[in-house]
């Protein structure tokens, strides 16, 4: 079987790329969703290099052939997980324009972001690993991440009524802080309270924007 991964020249897609196209019936769509959900957990547990199609198939309780029906390679499964994460990230960032108007709302948004990472953080870890040996994955992920950083700053500026100088760098700084705090709050569970970490992170962002 000739399996070729899709090009990522324009960055990670916002729609899950499928071998058979997007015209799926309900049963096929459920299968695709199960593959993505299972792959997310396997990537988180095993990393990208340690993940195999066999393991994803085992967790999803489907055959390897069923996965290859929709995704030619493991790389394509990663791209599908990424597309799902990119779409969910966009929805979350959109909420910032409303919730970022008050400190309480911003704290709620950071809470939501941590919950988002509970589900989608696996993609960030798998992408980082895959990017070390795949320049196309690296560039596509970088473009998508920086786009999120700029949109994060734009929404915060909109909510606060104050311009943000160099929105890409500001967004990268704040998003990186949140991602690192999320990972450490899980790693250091028992030593730190997640609610305290979230409150401190929200205060840091609030102060950085409003002075």
Concise structural overview:
This protein has 211 residues and is mainly α. The chain has 8 helices and no strands.
Question: How much is the radius of gyration in Å?
Answer: 18 Å
- Strand elements, count: 0
Output the number of helix runs. 8
Order of helices and strands: HHHHHHHH
CATH topology of the domain at 85-210, by name, is Tetracycline Repressor, domain 2
The biggest beta sheet reads: none
Poorly predicted runs of 5 or more residues? 1-5
How would you describe this structure to a colleague?
The chain has a domain at 85-210: Tetracycline Repressor, domain 2 (Orthogonal Bundle). By secondary structure, it is mainly alpha-helical. The longest helix is centred in the middle third of the chain and has 29 residues, at 103-131. It contains 8 helices and no strands. The chain is elongated and about 55 Å long. The model is unreliable at 1-5 (pLDDT under 50).
């Amino acid at each position: 079987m000739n399996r070729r991964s899709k090009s990522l020249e324009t960055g990670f897609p916002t729609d899950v790329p499928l071998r058979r196209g997007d015209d799926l019936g309900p049963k096929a769509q459920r299968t695709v969703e199960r593959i993505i959900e299972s792959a997310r957990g396997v990537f988180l547990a095993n990393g990208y290099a340690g993940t195999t199609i066999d393991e994803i198939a085992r967790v999803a309780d489907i055959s390897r052939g069923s996965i290859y029906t929709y995704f030619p390679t493991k790389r394509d499964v990663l791209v599908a997980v990424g597309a799902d994460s990119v779409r969910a990230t966009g929805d979350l960032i959109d909420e910032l324009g409303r919730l970022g108007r008050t400190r309480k709302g911003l704290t709620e948004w950071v809470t939501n972001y941590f919950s988002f990472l509970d589900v989608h953080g696996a993609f960030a870890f798998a992408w980082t690993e895959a990017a070390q040996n795949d320049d196309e994955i690296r560039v596509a992920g970088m473009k998508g991440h920086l786009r999120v950083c700029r949109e994060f700053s734009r929404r915060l500026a909109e909510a606060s009524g104050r311009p943000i100088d160099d929105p890409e760098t500001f967004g990268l700084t704040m998003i990186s802080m949140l991602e690192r705090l999320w990972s450490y709050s899980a790693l250091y569970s028992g030593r730190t309270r997640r609610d305290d970490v979230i409150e401190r992170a929200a205060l840091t962002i609030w102060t950085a924007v409003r002075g």
